[in-house]
Amino acid sequence: MQQQPRFHPSTRLFRFTLLIFISLLSFGTYFAYDIISAVAPSLVEEYTPYTITGVTIDSLRHEGLPEELITGLVPLQNRKMTKTELLNALNSFESEPSKPVQEADADELHAGMKRSILRHAGGAGARSTVGSMFSMYSIAAILSVFIGGILIDRLGTRFASMTFSILVLLGAMGVAAAQSLPLLLAGRFVFGAGSEPLIVAQSAIIARWFKNKEMALAYGLALTVSRLGTLFSFNTGELIASHFGSYKYSLAAAVIFCGISLLANVVYIFMDRHGEKALELHDESEEKIVLKDIRQFKPSFWFVTLLCTTFYSAIFPFTALSTDFFVDKWGIQRVAAASGGFFHQVFNNFLHMFSTAGGISSIIIFASMIFAPLAGHLVDKVGRRATVMIYGSIILIPSHLLLGLTHIHPAISMIFLGIAFVLVPAALWPSVPMVVAKHQVGTAFGLLTMVQNIGLALFPLLNGLLRDLTHSYTASMIMFASLGVFGLVFAVLLKKADSGMQHILEKP
Do residues 281 and 295 share a domain? Predict the structure, then answer.
């Protein structure tokens, strides 16, 4: 009997080497999706309309800014300006007869003075603008759910995944190169149109290569690598912007990472083509909607879907502007102070995750990366899925209320939100195949994803609008806590419905 080569497609070595490149397919996507959140404070400043008024000057004088600086602001009164235009105007006059004000000159106009001027001169509208960047992504995702699974079936995972990866890269490039808001939103739409079906394709690829017990491990590893993209985005976005002088460099970093993911796709294609010939593989797309299946879904599926929508709408639309929230309310620093080279500063930022706005925002994802596999294993072992979803929904409510109604350090609430984000998904996603027939699982996941994205399109915009209208994030936090209440109701209804199905969700 002829022995197979060590790197034959049938071996674990080949499969798990291939998994490295499969996992990297969405690393750039996750980084690019969350980079908007990471640099939200800079984007808010950039897209806020600034006007120096008499009230602005009085407020700055009351704060004790140097009189020569305030005198220089007088000629700028009643002019609408962008952040860049305002800073350029500030740099054009002198605080001393022989020494012009330079943006980076801490002796003349340090960061605190600039923030004071931007805060008092800023108008409304910027937060809803940032929220609309996430809404545009999710609108594209809703549309792409219908065609993603179909394209994978018709074109195969290789061609489809490459098509989606190219769309992701083009969208990220469009966002980074955009010189106007409409072009930036168009870039986010193209990015969303490629991103969501790429994640579907990634799932199909994993199902194609991994079976039985290996599949859960493969999915877990791929999700961990993907979420590393989010972790890096939150903890490096403002640092890149600060180090290189503009948030545009952070958007350019997203392009680079999407390019790396595209290269990983190329490697996957060559390895998959080789393996297909040796093993006669078939595509297994999971998230394709078949309309006739929808009419047969029981109430338990709809309770899972509504819980999923309310829960995720209380997490991701919140993190869309959480970095700006932490800077705005608590004055938390955007970047951890550090000397040395850029990579040393990156390491220092991760080391001080709990003291930077982006780092605190990433606590939710960090918790899920560490504890989600353990929670999944625990739920598989003990069951109690509906009960776990109830507990997770309960945790969501006081976490958002503490953020909105108190000045307790936000890291505490974010830790509890991280616990909720570990518990609910660990119980929710495995519940879907239990409440629908086997042949309806693809439709169920596709429909759930589509409805979920409706919430993810609506609530980032509402979050920004509420902040712009009320000049505070308190109303937004009450809105997110209310979503937790609705989620709790759906979780209780799900448990009640489960009692009529022999408690299938509660069983191990």
Answer: no
Nearest Cα neighbor of 125 from 508, 471, 483 is: 471
Same domain, residue pair 16 and 59? no
* pLDDT, average across residues 25-48: 93
Q: What is the pLDDT of residues 48-89, one digit of tens each?
A: 888 888 888 888 888 888 887 788 788 888 888 877 778 777
Angle among Cα 221, 227, 233 to the nearest 5 degrees reads: 150
Identify the pLDDT of residue 453.
Answer: 92
What is the residue range of 204's domain? 8-32+128-285
Average pLDDT over residues 152-170: 88
Digit-coded pLDDT (tens) for 88-140: 777 765 444 334 444 444 444 556 777 778 777 776 678 999 999 999 999 99
Q: What are the DSSP calls for 278-342, one per residue?
A: HH-----------HHHHTT--HHHHHHHHHHHHHHHTTHHHHHTHHHHHHHHH---SS----S-H
Domain count, the chain: 3
Say whether both 174 and 87 belong to one domain: no
Paired strand residues for 81: 50
Listed residues 238, 268, 285: the one ending a domain: 285
CA 300, distance to chain mean position in Å, is 28
**Residue 395 structure tokens:** 């945790």
Instruction: Examine residue 400 and state whether it is found in any structural domain, yes or no.
Output: yes
Q: What is the mean pLDDT of the chain?
A: 86
* Sequence-ordered list of residues with C-beta below 8 angstroms from that of 188, at least 6 positions apart, any chain: 36, 133, 134, 136, 137, 140, 171, 175
Distance CA(110)–CA(96), nearest Å, equals 15
